[in-house]
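G.,

No rush on this.
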Amino acid sequence: MKIDYTREDLIAICERAVVPHDRWGDRDTPGAQEGVGKAWAFLKAGCTFRVSTEGKYCVTDDRTIWIEIDHDDFGTRDWGGPGETETFYLPTPARLDATAGRDWY
């Protein structure tokens, strides 16, 4: 199982993970697609990220890549706060290959 994804790997996965609206097949697909888009934007912007590989929940496996992304927020700009960390999930390349352009969620 791969865990050493680069920024470029993750950006390419985000771009592959966008499913055309007429192929959505699950009630949770809109949220999954929103997460992909948000993760893509933060990665493209150069935000710090980590692939989650340890713990009980939200751990990368052979189907799902879990990433934590740090970014500035309102507080960072207004009073020097620490920013925010958000967690996102992406399908692995193998999962995308298996769905062949269909809804991976």
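When you get to it, here's the other one too:
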Amino acid sequence: MIKRIAIGLAAVLAGLGIGGAGAWGAAHFLPQLVGAHARPAPVETEFVPVGEVLAPLVSADGRLSGYVTFECQLEVPKGSGEQVGAKLPLLLNAVNLRTYRTPLASGPDGLVPGLDAFRKVVMEAAAEVYGKGAVRSVAVTRASPS
């Protein structure tokens, strides 16, 4: 009986040791085998200010509960800032059309639950206006009720 327990315990310890050594080997040697193909080159970016955006706060049932003003900046690849800036009126229109369909006032008592809702709306509008991948991220710098 004790011999069975000892053999089972030795098998578990040996399995843990072999598995750990395999994981260490894969983590240590695999990046060297794959090389530069696995890591994309870092892209230099710049921020394009959008300015103030006046957006309606719509509750989940479709009622208008007020307005909010927020400022944001778009992170784009370096050199494409002028092209992005030229289409800012189209972006603002797309944001305005999306905020009427998006329940931004879904927090308690009709409040905005967080800045992620604004970021998501602007990213979706930017993908529509500039194409997917043209805007890397959106930084919401200020938000206040109007």
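The chain has four helices and three strands. The first strand starts at residue 45 and ends at 58.

Enjoy the weekend,
O.
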